[in-house]
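Look over both lines:
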Amino acid sequence: MKKIEIDTFLKFQFVSNPSFSPDGKYIAFVVSNADRAENTYKANLYVYDMAEKKVRKMTSGGDAKSYVWTNDNTLLFPAARCSEVKKKQEAGEALTSFYEISPEGGEACHAFTVPAKIIGFKALPDGRFLMTASQDNHKDTRKKSYEVFDELPFWSNGLGYTNAKRNRFAVYNRENGELSYVACDWTDCTQSSVLGDLLLYKAYPWKQNVRGLNEGIYLYNLKTGETKTLLEPDTMHTGTIELLNENEALVAAIDSDYRYTNKYNSFYKMNLADGSMNLFVPYDASIASGSVGSDARYGSGRGQKLLNGDFYFISTVDDFAWLRKLDKDGNISDSLTKGSSCDSFDVNGEHLVSCELQGTKLAELYLDGEQITHFNDFVGEEYSVVTPEAFSFTASDGYEIHGWVMKPAYYEEGVSYPAIFHIHGGPRTVFSDVFHHEMQMWANAGYFVFYCNPRGSDGRGTDFGNINGIYGTVDYQNLMDFTDEVLKRYPQIDTARVGVTGGSYGGFMTNWIVGHTDRFKAAASQRSISNWVSFEHNSDIGHTFIVNNQGANTRENVELLWKQSPLQYAPNCKTPILFIHSDEDYRCYMAEGLAMYSAVMRNGCPSRLCLFHGENHELSRGGKPENRIDRMTEILNWMDQYLK
């Protein structure tokens, strides 16, 4: 069997976003891959023929990253294939061209060009399209020589500077080329649900000020153009929305002050006449999204769907992301999928298609539980894939902690091995038994790899997941207890050669660990947080995230924020530590990594900081292929230097 190397991910085919055609004859989906030569990602459309039970490639240009089915059973996708349109886009003109292709084959033909920068779209029942347009309200006065900030937030991870930019819903009429906006220029639109002539949507109307915590909910009549406000912004925390009928909607919401509880949403029914909300079904898990971590996926897809009054949704429960169904009577089903992580899905009649990571298999499509795509079967057949060994134990605080251990790929009894402890981000995410390329690479490089879901993780309810205001306490102890348990269960691990790493919250915790213990012989802190006081004011989500996770802001209790900041304990660090950060990471800004690096350098301990240009918070999962390779090389070299 071949070793899994740093660059093995270049061979992966990332399957995502399945959906049935309106007539039910086909399933469309996207397949993406890393292109090292062009240092980017390519994506193409495929269809699965339900009658012939065959997969067929529809596009080959590498530019079909998203699509919708039209009411005429054709595939519509945006692409910049016209040189004239490309020139206008490069000159700053807001244009988006759409192409159309039949699932039965043939060439994709130009369908229409929308006079706006479109970042999302869906087909409406009447043949029109609901578009999400990115609008720059300061475009005519913006200069290249400097940026002007007059609102908060002023940037966004992955999007860059966002000051005065809004995402607006608009209805596009293909027949006459008219684009009619749903809300005013300064309204930021997020989610939507359509039923007949009704458009229910979430939005935050704001202008050159501070964006609040929660959007409002609005009802728009597609026929008359009238809008009704059902829920004012900043009155209640809400999640996903879905129109049930002409009189009510299903809304995921929290019934108390979200700022200091970190509770999960429950299911409510909203009266469309007056906006009143009534609790339908209490729920203590995520709704319409999964949180299983992996660096071996690319692309997105549907996380929820209403069909015949039943609401299908992805939810993280325990250590897995499963598809569930909420029926009309308020009953929630067990898992409708088999895999460790259902990433996206669609339902049509009696058929269910899901994009899943099942165990150590990369994402593939499953139709009614049976695998129908096989793009990545070669990985398990040709490479030395290590199966994680799961176990649970009771930590010192009385909570059950779930974790996994991966043995070295070419493990031999009686041999002593180094190990790497990997801490996930979030913290409201989970690790699972899914294929994780980087951890497989470490195992193939001769390391034990171990990881777990400490308190603060997703999938175990509010009580387990709420560490608001106590970061670095119970979660830290869980991680140390888990390390003790792993070393006890696996005596083949050399306790003098154990390293630790993690990104985002995992980077925060790595920073915290090296300031509180010397038990790890090497550390790699990635896209980290070191100081919650500064994080509040430089992160794109800082002014809202801080109160939801640290229990206060600098105006209320700066002492609490500093108490939870690793930078305070940096003078204690003696562990050789590598820092990985990106200069366009506006989620955990590079100042966080630079501050921790500067502090530990003064201790005289070995340190190194790698700042990647043009990358953001997603470097390890969606960064440019060459940068992903360099990042993994830096981390492996650092661990090898101090652990081997």
The longest strand covers residues 493-503. The CA atoms of residues 424 and 506 lie 5 Å apart. The radius of gyration is 25 Å.
